[in-house]
Amino acid sequence: MTKQIITWDLGATKCTAGLIEYNHTTHALTCKRHFTVKLAQTTSLEDLIHRLEAGLDFVMPEADAICIGAAGHYDGKYLLHTNAYPYPMHFANTAKLQKWPAFAVIHDYSPIVCATFTSYMEQPKNIKRLNSCAIKPHGRRVALGIGTGLGLKDGVLFANGDFWLGHNEAGHIGIAAPPHADKHHLDRHHEIMRFLHEKNTHQAKQSPITFESILTGKGTANLFEFFHPDAQGITPEEAGEKMRAGEAKEMMDAFAWYTGLFVGTVQLTFMPEGGVWITGGVAINHLDVFDLPDFFAGIYASPAYLMQREEYPLGVLCNHEHALIGSGYYAAKRLF
Fold it and tell me: Which of 80, 183, 286, 308 is 20 to 30 A from 50 (CA-CA)?
């Protein structure tokens, strides 16, 4: 017996929806098709839904469940975001008017954690492993996303297939001072911090300096400006092109080091025996960052409990369907 689940991966700029088939007997989850819409091309939540339904050739009321992984906070009626969506996300009222089945709106990194509970993790094409450590099925695990923002969620899988998810916003923490680093990395770190503080003081609207200031699309632009002062005002898209073209070696090394520093900070915070699993648009589009020596130098800059931490799995989730599959798992366990 199979169930049809509609899942959404809703970000601040675009939304991807998938039609997921769930087999009750085997518990297999299969993404039959998916479709992406840019929010700028839509005029309302109703218009977005109409476009997603047309792209999937499947309407929401015909699903057995709907699970929406979304950036922001859902208060039971509206989805709210620090940077406001282009129109009200009044899911509760829309679901009622359109006669949706059981549905849930969950934190956008909850599906990433849930995807790690599935057979998705058994398919090598889906993962770039950064070490060879075995996954402890019921160990605490962390999903870490490097994209437009910096997301994080931890979770635990129980023996009966149910799960627990944490409540974290680690992307908004300040950049950790490395407790142990060689002179080259430490001097570079202090210079970058000075640059970010100076840049911040000259901006009309000052923003806090956090790991998001470096480990996001906006962060790549900040780092590129640091190493190339004549590139002031470069966009994240332009910085990404420079990275892919091999024109930003110093910047890539620094980005890799801060990624490692953040991973080491996360490991110490959660001690995740189930692993740290990295994803997000910036991470997936620049997988070579994880092959650079500076990445592991950043991890080792936090040397405490390193013997235990080196036994924790570490990898990058590369398949763009992981959020859709993870939402399907959530729906299968919580909405049927």
Answer: 80
